[in-house]
Amino acid sequence: MNEMVARSILGLVGVEREAAKDRQKRQIRCIKPMSAHHIHVFISHSWTYSQHYEKLEEWIFHDDWHVNGVPIHFHDQSVPEDNPIHYAANAGELKSAIWDKILHSDVVVIPTGMYAGYSDWIQKEIDGANSYGVPILAVDLRGSQRKASVVVESADEKVGWNKNSVVTGIWKLRP
Question: Are 165 and 147 part of one and the same domain?
Answer without folding.
Answer: yes
